[in-house]
Design a protein that fits this description.
heterodimer, A: 283 residues, mainly alpha, ABC transporter involved in vitamin B12 uptake, BtuC, two-stranded antiparallel ribbon, 10 helices, B: 231 residues, alpha/beta, Rossmann fold, binds adenosine-5'-triphosphate, binds magnesium ion
Chain lengths: 283, 231
Amino acid sequence: MIWVIHTLNGISFGMLLFLLAAGLSLIYGLMKILNLTHGSYYLIGAYVGSTIIAKTGSFALALIVAPLVVALLGAVMERYFLRRFHLQELPQTLLTFGFLFIFADLMLWIWGGDPIVLPKPAAFSGSISIGDARYPTYRLALIAVGLIVALILWWFQERTRLGAMLRAGVDDAEIAGALGIDVSLLFTLVFAVGALLAALGGVLGGPIIGAQPGADFEVMLLAFVVVIVGGLGSLRGALIGGLLVGLLDNFGKIFFPELALFTIFVPMAIILSFRPTGLFGRL
Amino acid sequence: MLKVENIYTNYGSSQVLQDLSLEVKPGEIVGILGRNGVGKTTLMRSIMGLTPPRSGRILFDGADITRMAPHRIARLGLGYVPQGRRVFPSLSVREHLQVTAREREASPWTFAKMIELFPNLGQRLDQSGAKLSGGEQQMLAAGRALVANPTLLLMDEPTEGLAPLMVRELGRLVGALKDSGTAVLLVEQQLAFVLKYADRVYIVAKGQIVHHCLPAELATDSDVKARYLGV
Ligand SMILES: Nc1ncnc2c1ncn2[C@@H]1O[C@H](COP(=O)(O)OP(=O)(O)OP(=O)(O)O)[C@@H](O)[C@H]1O
Ligand SMILES: [Mg+2]
């Protein structure tokens, strides 16, 4: 039974990683920007969510408003800063690195240095029996939300015209533009959606991981591993990679507690030596 | 309809186009000939806004498009069929023909019309663009540009690497374009193809227009052919 519980823990954490990695992967796929601010979106989402819950007591409101606030932040970053350095990878990456520090300081200033754990929503604060053990319903809800988001993203990408434009842009942004697709609008959209998903992960992860200085960097590192393992530019890669890293992280901590990140990076190196572009990557 | 006036285009420090001017009138098929590396693709990229010229002007239907964003230029009615086709591997044939579609008043080019014109594509609607043969990819690259209903289509070496049968297919397309009144700026290395379909011909060498004539004149001008085209 304990295995079922560990597996569920790994999967629910994997869903959080998927939310982070999906945006990271799409942003890289379309714009070739390595967005080092992505972990900050996650943490800002968690902090803003905690403030909304503290003021209104509504988890649902936090889950809607915090991601929208962060989406706006992402859109502004893209439109007014990154855009100036279109296709210049080094300046863009350095710029996102700078934002990482600016946001970290701002968060420290506003929310302080003590860890904050968001309260679970009332409807999912209990637990259910799995065999002879109890398992928190919140984590199960988290898995469900992750799957629903994955489904929506898949539908959007594969079944809508905007999704097809996005894929065309990822394949060949230059030609997509020359055929009349407003690629610069896609850039802003993808940045906003990527930030939104990361912040959604921040609010959802708040009750189990919490928010504290440094978490931005930690989750970003894990999200990068997910994207590298799953393949840059691939949503499916972000989902499978997220689950894989979530499970590895969880079981690694149980079997080799003293080795921490080792259990993630060794499998990553092995996968990359067989598939240099990641499991589902083409780039 | 298209006026290129004294453009200079460079990639970094290497100057490619120098004081190049040309014109395309409504409904005309204009051929551009020239050897490898003389700047034909750079000319197309300059017109589309992908590599904007450093100086000079490009006018399309009277509007200055010299430094306009490519998607704006495309929406004014310029279609682009790039060299090497560059179809989208993650898009199916159907999506290629839908994603850029735009209706205009006259709108002769619809999804249905493209499939009628290229039955091969109609049988592969759900396949990835990357899985098609070279000839089919060329038709697809033309099709996705046409469904936006451009009034001028830029085609960069469409016959490159195609089997003779496919070259004939492509000729059929250029004929249909002419009949529908769509102008074409046709970059080619296959002299015969240009001689057959073009109304006028420009020859490019070292980034400049060095000769301008009618196809019939070029056909018999062995001096110009030898000097600029190596035939
Ligand atoms: N992206 C680029 N960066 C730097 N130089 C380039 C670039 N693209 C082309 N060139 C150079 O510019 C010159 C003109 O190239 P262009 O592709 O326009 O020629 P072309 O006439 O289309 O040749 P081809 O018949 O082989 O297609 C060549 O010398 C080429 O090496
Ligand atoms: Mg060329």
